[in-house]
Write a structure and sequence with these properties.
The longest helix has 16 residues. The protein is 23% helix and 22% strand. The chain contains five helices and seven strands; from the N terminus they run E-E-H-E-E-H-H-H-E-E-E-H. A hairpin with an 8-residue loop joins strand 3 and strand 4. It is an alpha+beta fold and 226 residues long.
């Protein structure tokens, strides 16, 4: 069961400090995390800033959102994501990415899959219709999942974010669409881990993705992702 993970519990406003960590262990499903220094912490705002800086160096469309903040806002976007959507970074950060769905039909199954991912970290991949800033529509291959990046210093609970890779597949045949972006996900996770461990609060531990189990989506959730 995933009741103790990512979004299946009420927000705890007392959890303000994060012990960051190396998030490279993309395929590991164990939840073991060991900090090498006690007291090495980051404020949530600093964590968001480091992730935003890491995304600036990514050379493909990618985003990071924080599902533990009301509305699951985007906290980092890559330059290629900005180019893909034509929205400037300042107009994207702090918003839920559903603004890209304005005027677009999103299937019920896709909505449920994205919501499930933001509640539990469960992998979701599908082609969804999105709208650029100029009003043109495109087919976006959205590949998203949870990534554990640290733990709360005061509770030991895992801190996680939703990472996503996007690709314009408007001109692709269905058989050509790559629904998994393993290499790009690995690169994105490593960039986040490098940004956190290269900060002044240096320490080492193993980060993981949540186990790919069927989530319990009947529990109380935050504001819907879509």
């Amino acid at each position: 069961r995933l009741d103790h993970l990512h979004g299946c519990k009420k927000e705890d406003e007392s959890k303000n400090h994060i012990i960051p960590g190396d998030s490279h262990a993309y395929h590991v499903t164990s939840s073991e995390m060991v900090a090498s220094q006690e007291g090495a912490t980051l404020e949530i705002e600093d964590l968001h800033e480091l992730i935003a800086q890491a995304l600036d160096q990514i050379s493909f469309p990618a985003t990071v959102a924080d599902p533990e903040v009301q509305g699951c806002p985007l906290i980092g976007v890559s330059p290629d994501f900005v180019a893909l959507t034509q929205f400037p970074t300042a107009a994207i950060l702090g918003r839920n990415c559903r603004f890209l769905n304005d005027g677009c039909h999103i299937s019920t199954s896709a909505r449920e899959g994205m919501r499930c991912c933001t509640r539990t970290g469960k992998h979701f991949s599908d082609v969804v219709a999105n709208q650029r800033a100029d009003g043109t529509h495109f087919l976006n291959l959205l590949d998203m999942r949870g990534l554990i990046i640290g733990k709360y210093a005061n509770t030991g609970d895992e801190k996680w974010v939703v990472i996503a890779v996007q690709e314009d597949v408007s001109s692709m045949e269905p058989s050509e669409i790559p629904f998994e972006h393993v290499d790009l996900m690995e690169e994105l996770a490593k960039a986040i881990g490098d940004a956190l461990t290269s900060s002044k609060n240096i320490f080492a531990h193993r980060g993981t993705l949540p186990a790919q189990q069927e989530p319990d989506v009947s529990t109380e959730s935050r504001e819907p992702f879509l």
